[in-house]
Amino acid sequence: MKWQDLTASEFAQAVKDVKGVCLLAPGCLEKHGDHLPLGTDFLNGFALCCLAAEKEPALVFPHYYFSQIHEARCFPGTIAIDPILTLQVLENVCDEISRNGCHKIIIRNSHGGNKHLLGYFAQSLLAKRKDYSVYLPERVFPQWRQKAWNDLLESKVHEHACECETSVSLANHPELVKMQNIKGEAPPLNRQGHIPPGMVSNQWYTDFPEHYAGDARPATREKGLKLRQLLVDSLAEYIKAVKEDTAVATLTKEFYDRCDKIGH
User: Fold this and answer.
1) Does the reported pTM lie above 0.85?
2) What is the mean pLDDT of the chain?
């Protein structure tokens, strides 16, 4: 159920029907090669959440694109919000989702650059008592599903605006994909390979300076529909597990209660 499409009374009933589960799919506005739209991440993330919520009912929050994307500031169209404000807005949004009755919030990351941001955000919620739980699903497929995914793909590098992301985009919004603009393959340049493994702030730019990583040429809508279904089925299973969960809220309350006893 799309949050924005419901009337107020329909929304109140929907919260009860879905057992207070809401999906939020943070994406961003950034370059995706020369063939995909700036909104690729949040458009695909929202579409996947809506399809999964049709299979396992849940509320889906509207398009959300204020997240971490400083590594793309050198390209036109990027919107990179101040880091502290990004966290504050996300917390405020989650607070509001909970105030409206959804106390189980599944944040389905739709942008690779959000990985560390969302992990830290989830941990930071322990700093003060909240009346909701945040769940961050990872795309870890069982072996059979991962094999089905791999068997559909022809290219080797899958990072950004690549074969799989372009295929899923062709499934979700083919009218926005410009296959004629694809400029061959973009492998990692490894320009900082002399540094031992770790993380450097400019790592993404040094490896993929044109914000395109992989080879989108083999992408097709047919592949995208199959890849999308694997993602949708996995997310629907996760929604079901969250609906049935009682442990997270109970254990988090136990944690808060123990915090409150310190010094007393």
Assistant:
1) yes
2) 96
